[in-house]
Design a protein that fits this description.
2 copies of one chain form a homodimer.
Chain A (H helix, E strand, L loop, with lengths): L5 E6 L13 H18 L4 H6 L2 E12 L8 E12 L2 E10 L4 E13 L5 E2 L2 H4 L25 E7 L13 H10 L3 H6 E10 L8 E10 L2 E8 L5 E11 L3
Antiparallel strand pairs in A: 1-3, 2-5, 2-8, 3-4, 4-5, 5-6, 7-9, 8-11, 9-10, 10-11
Helix pairs in contact in A: 1-4
Amino acid sequence: MSQSVWRESFRVRSNETDIHGLARLDGLFGYFQEAAGHHARVLGVGRKSLEDQGCFWVLSRCWMQIHQYPAWGQELVVRTWPQGVERLFALRHFRFLTEDGQEFGSGISAWLILDQEKHRPMRPGPFLDGIVLPEEPLVNGDVLVKLGSISDSEELRHVSAAYSDLDVNRHVNNAAYVRWTLDSFDLEQHSRRQIESIRIDYLSETLPGESISVRGREEAAGRQDIFGLRSTTAQPVFQARITWRDRMP
Amino acid sequence: MSQSVWRESFRVRSNETDIHGLARLDGLFGYFQEAAGHHARVLGVGRKSLEDQGCFWVLSRCWMQIHQYPAWGQELVVRTWPQGVERLFALRHFRFLTEDGQEFGSGISAWLILDQEKHRPMRPGPFLDGIVLPEEPLVNGDVLVKLGSISDSEELRHVSAAYSDLDVNRHVNNAAYVRWTLDSFDLEQHSRRQIESIRIDYLSETLPGESISVRGREEAAGRQDIFGLRSTTAQPVFQARITWRDRMP
């Protein structure tokens, strides 16, 4: 059987849900990341395989939209596949489906391959040679266009990168940044409205113990830009753009 | 088939692992909690059923020991069953097994049934009438003995209860307190040693936005007491005792 499209099932666990009993966005992010990791391994370009070649994957940008959040106990399927190379980015698309095949969300991710020594991006083409792209309807969205740069914004929250945020490379894991973004809004906001889409760009590695200032700026009704800056140097570590939709009353 | 013992499988996801590539304790806590919730429902005493009777479950105390932490991608089984009533506590024991049946951890939890109106504990007996206890070897441990009270300690960390910490009842979820405890130790400690056991007592509900001071006291070599206090009133919200073991060099 061809494995050019990867399918993986997850069931929403209680500690992945929020005050509405629905899956949190950082949980959905985790499911996608998990499925992507397994698929890469099956395609021969997993963490181990790249490590043997002196390289590693990093997620550079991700965009995701959720039409309807699944509830505690619901089974869902991540459907994901590589979608070629654009400049230095290896692209990977994904869809979230309910158990009976209804799409409730989708997204596009852009990955870099860095060399272990200098953390410089390599051209991904040669690594991905021979991987057949599936004939799968493309996800309609974009991660290649640049987000606006940082200007005036107000501080929403202060976080420091702790043990539970770090992965095996001692970097803050991708889903943790999404969690930091969610946590910079109070319950009043989370009660009134729901995140419809997020675009998140990973700009710099956050090291253990580092203090990050999460800042925000409301761009337009229902659109917000979020910036994570090193407290010491104001260097950006991540940037996100979220759109909200009002909850049904 | 009798369902007096519940078995549920989990696979360790990448965002549930730590700097060693091993499952974090708060993740294992989450697996147990998930399995316990499902089992309660099957036994007719799930969240919904208690709600209909004007009550709800709260985890009051939990003790857990882990001999060997599973790694990313490993499949594990939670085996859990109710173990009768002691005073106002409904007890539930559990074991963690590898895919091929080797025990790598175990624990005992003590739950209360509170009435929705005044949050007063009810006698659990009448609710649990008719639930047959299995003939399962007991887990060897204790949650009934009281932990020592709070005295001198130093502040390790400051946290505030955010959106991602809260459950559908708008209370901080049980696994989040374990995460707060883990995060109050720096990477040097997590690199040098590993948590062998934790006993955690939930003393008071933490409300959204509340600021909690996590304080610690080293009791003896490898044993540490942790206290979570409301920053405003110094009222304790949780208390934990952990034991550490040195990692193999």
